[in-house]
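Bench notes, afternoon.
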Amino acid sequence: MGGEHARITALLGPTNTGKTHFAIERMLSYPSGVIGLPLRLLAREVYDKIVGLRGPNAVALITGEERIMPPRPRFWVCTVEAMPVTGEHDFLAVDEIQLCADAERGHVFTDRLLHARGRVETIFMGAETMRSTISQLVPRAQFVKRERFSHLTYAGSKKISRMPARSAIVGFSVENVYAIAELIRRQKGGCAVVMGALSPRTRNAQVELYQNGDVDYLVATDAIGMGLNLDLHHVAFSATSKFDGRRMRPLTAQELGQIAGRAGRYQRDGSFGVTGEASPLHEETVEAITEHRFEPIRKLEWRNPELDYRTPAHLIASLEARPDNLLLARAREADDLGALKALAAMPELAPRTTSRADTKLLWDVCRIPDFRGISHAEHASLLAKIFADLHGLGRIPDDWFARQVKRIDRTDGDIDTLSKRLAYIRTWTYVAQRKGWLDDESHWRGATRAVEDRLSDALHGALTQRFVDRRTSALLRRLKQKESLVADVNDKGEVAIDGHVVGRLEGFRFRQADTSDAGEAKTLRSAAVAALGPQFSLLSDRFYNAPDTELDFTEQGGLMWGEHAVGKLVKGSEALKPQVQAFVDDEAGAEVAEKVTRRLQHFIDRKIAALFEPLMNVQNDEALTGLARGFGFQLIEALGVIPREQVAQDVKALDQDARGALRKHGVRFGQFTIFMPLLLKPAPTRLRLVLWSLAQGLQEFPESPPPGLVTIPAPQGMPEGYAPMSGYRSAGSRAIRIDMLERLADQLRGQDSRGGFEATADMLSITGMTLEQFADLMGGLGYKAEKGERAKVKPVDAVVPEAAAAAPEGDVPVMDAAEAQPEGGIIEQPTPETSADDISPEAEALPDAGEAPVAETPAEPLPEEPVAETPAEELAPGTAPDAEIAGPEMETFYTFTWGGNRGGRRNDQQGNRPKGQGKGKPRGKGGPKGKGGPRRDEGAKTFQSRPPRKEKQIDPDNPFAQALMGLKKE
């Protein structure tokens, strides 16, 4: 091939000696040249480099699946299998010549060593282990040894979590590579992935991720050992054995050294080691790698290059011929030979292989690589179809080929799906590169290349999305470079650093974006919080100066700033003095936390002072002394609401002056409850329940009832004391608001509770209940309700009821209690009757005999007018039957009597017994006061068992009592 005097050089040495770089420079110094490289990836890298130096018109790229052929190229960059060996080029070089010993592809490299030559110069680059064999097979070869520019050191075993930056972790299966890459993403922010099966476009994009610093880690197969020049500081083996297509075997020291040698480029030293489950390397292996001393290669793989195309049988026999040189070993059966045997055995193909041309075509078809790797039978079936079309039609049908390509041209799916499609398209890309197999070769070469590019980009995107956390990797890169990071917080609370959203700022707590691993979360948080420092400080200043209107508390004791929780209330020394606990991240600093805490305490203190001002006035009134002051403090401890039965004796002990002093602060001594009406409004009630729940140590705080309701369903399952704190008192199946209950009590005091009375319209209006519901309520208050029916008396317009005639001028019409109440749910409407506030302690202590019930005289019936009888059958449809036949219209009524004990106070655990009603019954005054009450005959006698009651002293602070006294004097 080459001239007899052409120079042949074996350029040998370890990795990082600049052998490939030297060969490229030598080739470019000649008018023409060709270089064969072991991988399509490396061929593309060298092609791009030369194009950058000489331009695209000067360089051709020839691989099994890619062909870039300008009109008159000067330099050819090829895979070793695809390189032309015609001897027409001035320069020829073959890289990684030690692959002559590779079990799968070694026979191709051996053939190039024995037969490929340049006209002027030939260079074989590879390991020093080939020196002895080359010297024997190529006696004219001159040897040049290159020394490594940097040193390699063994770093032992390291956990992946402690892997130094700029490291490559090597695996020997796709599954192993993906598992390591996922772990690296979680712990280190991301990695690039490089495998021999990747297309050059995908591999270059992944390498760019690593080279430009987006990620600091690379996970790869042993493909990186074949001349890929990367900026690696450390190489770690996750395993020291691999599956070679037939069996699992340990890697040789030479193979380990080839990969480890990628660490350290040019004059920067590198290191290697193991990780994961890989066992530490033996001392002899480490020494061989660091000293670059390996066992010499003594046998080269060989397959007969002189093929016999007479018949398939002759071709198979020539391929299986044995070498006649002891340095050569017959290669094991390769995939192409296996496919040839399978097709030659097909009966339907036998008539098509009767000539040398047929057999040569059959061999060309069998050399289509099994990129898909489905099964040998499936691959053989595809090759048979292609051969049949080429033999019968002289070409592959365009419509069939188009269907195969279209089926693959999809970019959806996960990494595995995209990888399979890339493997499939490589088959059709290879077919499109064969000359004369398709009608429009140029079109299909471009079409298959475009599909491969789209799939390559999609696979790169899928790999990056799965194995690279761009947020974390970007932050770590900035931190590593010691650049100042500044966090931007938008109006939605999203925190962005360097354009990457890393989480949300909720008040003074950073909620980072979801991560699938604790290590990754820790890394992301450390980077984000470091950038959030200035933001926390600015935010705390804005919060401290925010008005109280921007803050609020929840019914569970939370403290809010807008929509964000910034703290919570905790139990203090007193119910009205709760403390606050701020929600501030530790990373924000003690100064920010102290400022937030101080602002929250100011807020809640002012809120309590405003909503509980009446209680604060009681507490601060130095004029209150003695029993009045003691009772005031009881009221403060009870947050302004005390059921009367709990302090009955204390109330009796208060004289009128003490009561008057407390009434000045708004304290109302009701028949059932001692309370401050202003504290029954919704806002104080809501806060009172929170403060009471804190004081009680409740885990879950009960909510306040909806505002504006007079009655609600009786609370069930609530803590003891909830009802009065919520402003209600349970009575029967419902609970009534305590201020409205006192208004009802004012009505009841005017009734004959011994003789019985019926509910008036005012009573029903106050409670907003039906008669049946009112009866249940009265039962809950200690009254007996006797149900009855009677004929309903129709009102006569001309007759004015006595009660209506006696009503004073200016009476307002009866309205529903819910309508009558002002904002806040409190009604302060005095009634003409004596209120509970006007009952003296002495009168409360004495039983009231009441009035004897008076029988109501029935009214005389109106005279009946004779009515002509009409037979029922003659009545027109829809006509009411005769009143006498239908009967009178009936109505239901209830008669209420006091149901308490006469012998003393009743032990009522529910607290439903009304106070101040004497020993066993509420006091009833009888008489015509109160609308709708039972009327007495004017001549009825009354009896009593005790002296007449003394005239009660007028309370100077009660204007209604003074008005009554004035009426009596008149």
